Amino acid sequence: MREHDLPVDPQLWGALSALADPVRLRIVWLLRQRERCVCHLTAELGLSQPTVSHHVSILRRAGLVLDRHDARWTYYRLAPEVAARLSAAVADLLDATQMDPTPAGCHTPVDECKRPVPPQTTD
């Protein structure tokens, strides 16, 4: 399946792309608990300030993170509406009731196929 075949709107596609990095996933995990400034994130992640700022910037552009300015400090938090839409989109994407049991490139139902079934992975 090609990217343009997916029924995902551009904002959700950008959010999914932003979450494809382990550091950004960790930042989202921390921000789901409470808002934090970059200095808190650097301490908790053990990364440099420029690295954390770079990743937070990508999350902001994807619409996953909002900021709040308080004097000299900027605090970051998750954007709840985007997180809810993303959660629903991922649930819909992984909905087993909508999966086609026919192997790709084959029009024979799985139970009639003579080809060996690939082993299941336990990722």
Task: Provide a descriptive summary of the structure in words.
Helix content is 44%, strand content 11%. It has 123 residues and is of the alpha+beta class. It has one domain: Winged helix-like DNA-binding domain superfamily/Winged helix DNA-binding domain (Arc Repressor Mutant, subunit A). The chain has a three-stranded antiparallel beta sheet. A hairpin with a 2-residue loop joins strand 2 (65-70) and strand 3 (73-78). The longest helix has 14 residues, at 80-93. The model has no long low-confidence stretch (mean pLDDT 82).
Question: How does the helix and strand content classify structurally?
Answer: alpha+beta
N-C termini distance = 21 Å
Number of helices: 5
Mean pLDDT: 82
Write down the domain tally. Answer: 1
Rough outline: elongated
Counted beta strands? 3
* CATH homologous superfamily annotation: Winged helix-like DNA-binding domain superfamily/Winged helix DNA-binding domain
Poorly predicted spans: none
Helix content: 40-55%
Main sheet overview:
3 strands, antiparallel
Task: Report the order of strands and helices.
Answer: HHEHHEEH
Radius of gyration: 20 Å
List the helices and strands and how they pair.
Elements: H1 10-18, H2 22-31, E1 36-37, H3 38-45, H4 49-61, E2 65-70, E3 73-78, H5 80-93
Helix pairs in contact: 2-4, 3-4
Give the tags.
alpha+beta; 5 helices; Arc Repressor Mutant, subunit A
Question: In a few lines, what is going on in this structure?
Answer:
This protein has 123 residues and is α+β, with helices and mostly antiparallel strands. The chain has five helices and three strands; from the N terminus they run H-H-E-H-H-E-E-H. Strands 1-3-2 form a three-stranded antiparallel beta sheet.
